[in-house]
Amino acid sequence: TANKKLLVLPGDGIGPEVMREVGRVVGWLGRERGVRFDISEDLVGGASVDAYGVPIRDEVVAAAKAADAVLFGAVGGPKWKDVPFELRPEVAILRLRQELELFANLRPATVLDPLVDASTLKPDVVRGLDIMIVRETVGGIYFGEPRGIEDLPGGGQRGINTEIYTTSEIERVARVAFDLARVRGGKLCSVEKSNVMESGLLWKQVVTALGERDYPDVELSHMLADNCAMQLVRNPRQFDVIVTGNLFGDLLSDLASMLTGSLGMLPSATLGGVLPDGRRPALYEPIHGSAPDIAGTRQANPLAQILSFAMLLRYSLKMEAEAAMIEAACTRVLSSGLRTADIMSPGMARVSTSVMGEAVLRELEKKPT
Ligand code: NAD
Ligand code: IPM
Ligand code: MN
Predict the structure, then answer these.
(1) Is 254 annotated as a binding residue?
(2) Among residues 172, 233, 296, 360, which one has the fewest Cβ atoms lying within 10 Å of its Cβ?
């Protein structure tokens, strides 16, 4: 069979720094597991603005559509704060999500045992945590029309964004979440603000109906988004799978990242629907951004990017064994006491981005005993 086609888009800031460490894992797959890829790499975000005047070129979008999977780093940074709004670096990821119809963003938050002390919450609250946030990513207030900034007749302006969700948009992302709940802990919590927003009310009705119709075996609950933020800090282990819209999912997943110790630990997968030819578009990226505050200092934690690649192997290439080996290697490295700055705690050894990446490779290369 032909090599799988991967499109690698490192982006800006720490994006290329953490992506470099994935290269070591790709090398190991080739040497030890006989897995070879056709990898192409391109510029996105601010790097593309600098080189081509746009955050992403049409041909990169086309390459993403043709690839078996896309591995994305991060985009954005203060260098591009003055480019026109429609050309800002972040448009690269928004456009990829939209044009590939990547509507379901899976953001797992798991607390690895060696990192129990890295969370800002008490160990007893987070130990063993394993939740999955499913964030809708092509609808909601991110994309609804009308939008813009308008002049008001009497002077001053108004900024407009519109939250819209249709029945089918809600159903397709809820289905992904129900399916995950079924093979995990059997519980799904749907999060909206149906007390304030009609889009939230429809969300709740559609998820409820779908649950009754197709997923009677999954225990469905509903929670208002503000309460959910509080509950995630108070008692995060009450959750199994959470499904929510674009904006709430963005906020709640950054919040959940700190339960695990660091934003630098959390991977994600963004999946589209199955196409008529059987392929399923997918993009994998850490949930963190380009971290301009630490870019170039060799402090970035590469584990979220490496774990995103593991998710790529699992979901797009059905290489569960290799995905699990990579995840286990990351856990063993942490057990051995190595820490990047973001997860540092007393008595541990502080290491750079590349030393962390090398350590993961070394663990992978250890022969099973
Ligand atoms: P950020 O996620 O880049 O950083 C937030 C904080 O977390 C920073 O203090 C940073 O140093 C730290 N951090 C993030 N990743 C880390 C890692 N791997 N290791 C260690 N520490 C890490 O968020 P921000 O600072 O609000 O945004 C910076 C830029 O990134 C903005 O332009 C934003 O739009 C963009 N952004 C892009 C993406 C994406 O490409 N998908 C996601 C989020 C933010
Ligand atoms: C994320 C980011 C993006 C989002 C930005 C960069 C457009 O914060 O992937 O979480 O808001 O979706
Ligand atoms: Mn975000």
Answers:
(1) yes
(2) 296
Q: Is 254 a catalytic residue?
A: yes
Catalytic residue, chosen from 4, 142, 165, 215, is 142
Please check if 124 is assigned to a binding site.
no
Domains of the chain, CATH where assigned: 1-103+272-369 (3.40.718.10), 109-264 (3.40.718.10)
36 CA → ligand 2 middle, Å: 31
Q: What is the mean pLDDT of the chain?
A: 97
ipTM: 0.98
Distance 167 CA to ligand 1 centre (A): 33
Residue 193 annotated to the active site: yes
Peptide bond into 78 cis (omega under 30): no
Query: Is 226 tagged catalytic?
Result: yes
Of 229, 226, 225, 284, nearest to 254 (Cα)? 229
Beta-bridged to residue 284, according to DSSP, are 71, 269
With a CB cutoff of 8 Å and minimum separation 6, the contacts of 15 are: 45, 73, 74, 75, 290
C-alpha span between 324 and 53 (Å, rounded):
40
Cβ neighbourhood burial of 362 (10 Å; 0-12, 13-18, 19+)? middle
Task: Yes or no: say if 340 and 317 are a contact pair by the CB < 8 Å rule.
Answer: no
Q: Is 342 a catalytic residue?
A: no
List, in sequence order, every residue forming a beta bridge with 338; answer none if it has no partner: 349
Integer angstrom CA distances of residue 40 from 66, 76, 131, 247: 11, 21, 33, 31
Q: Is there an atom of ligand 2 within 6 Å of 93 CB?
A: yes
Which residues have a beta carbon within 5 Å of ligand 3, which is an ion? 250
Per this entry, what is the length of the chain?
A: 369
Give residue-wise pLDDT tens across range 107-155: 999 999 999 998 999 999 999 999 999 999 999 999 999 999 999 999 9
Please tell me the distance from the alpha carbon of residue 334 to that of residue 350, in angstroms, as a whole number.
Answer: 11
Q: Which residues contact 213 (CB under 8 A, 6 or more apart)?
A: none
